[in-house]
Amino acid sequence: MGSRKPTPRRHSARVRPAPFPNPIPNSGPAPVGGARAPTSTGDCRAPPCPGPFPPRLRDFRKGAWLRRKFSLYGKVSISGSGVMAGPYAECAPAAVGQKRQQFGSRFLSDPARVFHHNAWDNVEWSEEQAAAAERKVRENSTQRVCQDKQVDYEINAHKYWNDFYKIHENGFFKDRHWLFTEFPELAPGQSQDHLEDLPSDNKRSEVPECRTSEDGPGLKIEQHKCSSNSLEHETQTAPVEENVTQKLSHLEICADEFPGSSATYRILEVGCGVGNTVFPILQTNNDPGLFVYCCDFSSTAIELVQTNSAYDPCRCFAFVHDLCDEDQSYPVPTSSLDIIILIFVLSAVVPDKMQKAINRLSRLLKPGGMMLLRDYGRHDMAQLRFKKGQCLSENFYVRGDGTRVYFFTQDELDTLFTTAGLEKVQNLVDRRLQVNRGKQLTMYRVWIQCKYRKPLLSSAG
Hints:
It is found in: Cytoplasm. The chain is an alpha/beta fold.
């Protein structure tokens, strides 16, 4: 018998178009048969579909695009007030005249709704959860790093942080605009309404590309003569650490000529990194009497700060400094600072050296000046993720890149600050539940936030 060639099957063109979602509120009327394309930048909704109806699914590429994009919608509906409801309602912009929710105001009352938002505030742990975290800490602390390696991590700590910033530059951390909600002292002249309207998308700072050699970073240091009418520049090339050391030694002789000596409100950030706190402060606080000092252990980080286009030597002074080195002086006299900021920096210090570091910093505060801290709390997710062999001492660990981190309790921080002669204004634990809705994961973060004030001088004094 002869074989018959199979007749090629034709793809049927009778394919029903995918259902189109309800129109989404937008400026201007929606076209017939479909929704108008979202026009706002960063809109979380799906992009527009070309034409009044979706393309036919016989086109594989367009069909896959259609199924993928429309799956983002879920069940979308519009309430009577014109507000989008459904699984992505939290992404919709606030209605006209409605303020954005502040941090710390989203509470999880129904565990079934845990994946309805990306984060929940002030989440209380169950007894079982706390016990499991304690067991995990005991487990990863049983095997300690050998003493020789611990000495290496301490002696070469600056090298590990330099390597970190050489690799990541300004792309690892994001600008901390949330600081003004947590610490309004950083912009005391701004109204609360203005601070609530600050951008919360944490845009990265724009830092020009900066390359360093193995012999150490070279940097053009600009000495600016600032006046209200003109700004003159005198540049010279020198290594960062050498230049800063020369300036600080000069300041010890001429204490009245320190940078920002004419300022009326002075802020120092210790452990500034690439400026993710400094630049938002300079951008937000428009007080003409403001001057910001910032220092970091890493000369590479300071180089990135000084080469940032937002760096203004008339309002800011960045310098290399080792928080634990008692022989290094600060570029300001005692009792001259209004605010000292410690954001995730004290945890990188060896526990035995923390108290002396805080004592030195407290002497720089004016009477009534404040020290602001936010750092890792005990049993934070980052602590529970450490493996055996990464523990240096109790609650003190080394990361894979050689940088170190400590996890605090409220009592430990209270002892550090009160021993330095400061009075407690705030000492709280921020327990936050972060959610990965795509992978259906929950991550429990624990941070501690503190405010401590230097006592005012008595009338008798």
